[in-house]
Amino acid sequence: MKIGAFTFVLHTHIPYCRNAGRWPHGEEWLHEAVSETYIPLLSALYDLKLEGCPFRLTIGLTPVLLEQLADPLVVYNFVEFLEEKIKRARDDAERFSSASEGHLSYLAKFYLDRYSEILANFNERFGRNLIRAFKQLQDEGYIEIAGSAATHAYLPLLERDSSIYSQLHVGKASYSYYFGRAPSSIWLPECGYRPAYYVERCGQRYVKPGLETFLSELDIRCFFAETHMVEGGQPVGKAREEVIGPYASIPRRYVVPIANYVEPVLRTTYLPYWVQSADVAVIGRNNQSSMQVWSADWGYPGDFNYREFHKRDSISGLHYWKITGAKMDLAYKEYYDYHQAQRRVNEHSTHFVRLVEQLLLDFYETTGEFGIIAAAYDSELFGHWWFEGVDWLKQVLSKLSQSETVEMTTASEYLERHPPKDVLALPEGSWGLGGGHFTWRNVDTEWMWKLIHDAELKMEKLVSMYPQAEGGVKELLDQAARELLLLQASDWQFLVTTAQARLYAENRFLQHLGRFQQLADIAESGVVDGSAISLCRNFWETDKVFPYIDYRWFADREGSEKR
To answer: 144, 190, 308, 456: which is the annotated catalytic residue?
Structure first.
């Protein structure tokens, strides 16, 4: 008897890096994700389909990622990237063979075969069209593709409702453009959420709607939240509370109370809830199952037999070592053994399946409820950061499909059969450091938000100035809207805060800001001549996203819910 349901929720996103640098920062991020995660994942799912495995999973694909995967220039550059990988593996095989390095020669040939297969699958199995490959799996009922905000903007910190609406509206339009249907569920970037709250401006008090209001307006019925936002308590993981405090950087806001609200008896990630009395449901990330992978201390990816990510060959850049030991200096890493690692994949996938079965059984026996486990991860963790991760996913899906107690599902399938019974007053927060906004708003990024907020207001004024623009003026304003969306991407703050690519991120932020301001200044001047259109089209060739955009989506929406 099935006593509960399970779905992976994979969040798939790469910053907009088309033609914006290659190595060490830029388009190569996307090439690595495609070759190490997206193609291997699709290959695994299509293999399972051929085997007759009735798997199900939920996977989010951000609109800005879809734009890049569909771009001919990105495709051309990716093939070039992969061909270079194949050449490096071939050269390594010859170099190690000449040096009588038998194990290294074997590993180089392993990579040569692997990269050759990935290229063949890209060209032949998927026809160089990964979006179509995902779409087919959704059309056939194997996966649910969740939508997202246009450029992965961190929505709780945007100042104007017009920007939140446009980020989500463009995201929905992108989804319909590529998948031929509207999304049922959405991954809010970084699980960032804010409820409705009061503001007072110019002597007038009005309501800033919660994010669920925007989702309801766009007919999106489900989103996902971090564990602590649903269950209460402290954020999961190392929050560094001694430095930044719990629920870091959450502003003090006068939240709008819910009329006749009754707190649910049970706050748990095993059940969905209606959010703030809206017709939008939230499903929380299940902590116990997710931390089996996420935990830096005892998660599967840290197993000593798995491939070491941080050590590369000094000539080819390929990985030939395993983790070997905890906190071990890279100089002392031992050589990787693929077959030994695969034995651990089998053991870990079996352990995970048993864990899921036991967790759902415990919940069912305690509550009598048919619960759900939503195990949420960044897709790029699998294959890219955790080399064996896609193999693990494939085995988990295969083994769970044979479970007598667990029903494999997608988020929307589960909600259709088991709609929420209770309403939850979901608090503000995210799955970022400290459970709040710190990762995106802190002393190093505060300057960015002032510029973003000024640009949001300016875009509203342009819409007011040109309520029904046509021809060249509309072309220019549409491009200004694209630059604003790219300016709002949460990636720039993330890369600054984590110091992964601070100068690159600041540069990219200022480039999009400069392009937006140039276009806005031209529009405000009222002189949109041939040179202005030429400049606009040059920007389009550089930032070639969202061809279906309409600048009027950025019209002022403040105070539309006055009370």
So the answer is: 190
- Give residue-wise pLDDT tens across range 284-296: 999 999 889 988 7
Q: 224 CB contacts (<8 Å, ≥6 apart)? A: 9, 146, 185, 187, 188, 191, 282, 283, 284, 285, 374, 376, 411
Give the DSSP letter of residue 180.
S
Residue carrying structure tokens 């931390």: 291
**Architecture in CATH for domain 446-562:** Up-down Bundle (1.20)
d(CA 39, CA 75): 13
Q: What is the pLDDT of residues 226-269, one digit of tens each?
A: 999 999 877 765 444 443 454 556 777 889 988 889 999 899 99
Contacts of residue 484, defined as CB under 8 A and 6 or more positions apart, other chains included, come to 163, 455, 456, 459, 512, 516, 554
Q: Are strands 197-201 and 204-208 parallel, antiparallel or unpaired?
A: antiparallel
The SS3 of residue 60 is strand
From 91, 217, 241, 378, active-site residue: 378
DSSP, collapsed to helix, strand or coil, labels residue 292 as helix
Asked whether the beta carbons of 185 and 148 are under 8 A apart, the reply is: no
Q: Is 51 annotated as catalytic?
A: no
- For residue 215, give the nearest of 127, 268, 274, 301 by alpha carbon: 274
Q: Where are the beta strands (DSSP E) in 47-142?
A: 57-61
User: Among 450, 481, 490, 487, which residue's Cα sits nearest to residue 548?
Assistant: 481
Q: Is 92 a catalytic residue?
A: no
Q: Where in the chain is the domain with CATH 3.20.110.10?
A: 4-17+54-66+143-435
Task: Write the CA distances from 355 to 399, 400, 418, 448, integer angstroms.
Answer: 12, 11, 22, 43
Residues of the chain with CATH 1.20.1430.10: 446-562
Note the Cα 63 to chain centre separation in Å.
Answer: 10
Q: How far, in Å, are 308, 334, 431 from residue 312 at the CA level?
A: 9, 12, 31
**Strand 281-284 with 273-275, pairing:** antiparallel
* Range name among 116-120, 176-180, 253-257, 558-562 with the lowest pLDDT average: 558-562
Find the mean pLDDT for residues 481-508.
96
Q: Is 288 exposed, middle or buried (0-12, 13-18, 19+ CB in 10 A)?
A: middle
C-beta neighbour count of 333 within 10 angstroms: 18
**CATH fold group of domain 4-17+54-66+143-435:** 7-stranded beta/alpha barrel (3.20.110)
* pLDDT at residue 314 is higher than 50: yes
Average pLDDT over residues 379-405: 97
Q: Which two three-digit tokens encode residue 175?
A: 């989804």
Q: Are 245 and 434 in contact (CB under 8 A)?
A: yes
- State how far the Cα of 210 lies from the Cα of 229, in Å rounded to an integer: 15
Provide the percentage of residues in the chain whose pLDDT is more than 70: 97
**Residue 122: DSSP 8-state:** I
Going by C-alpha positions, the residue among 313, 274, 241 that lies closest to residue 85 is 313
Residue given tokens 């194990």 in the structure block: 103
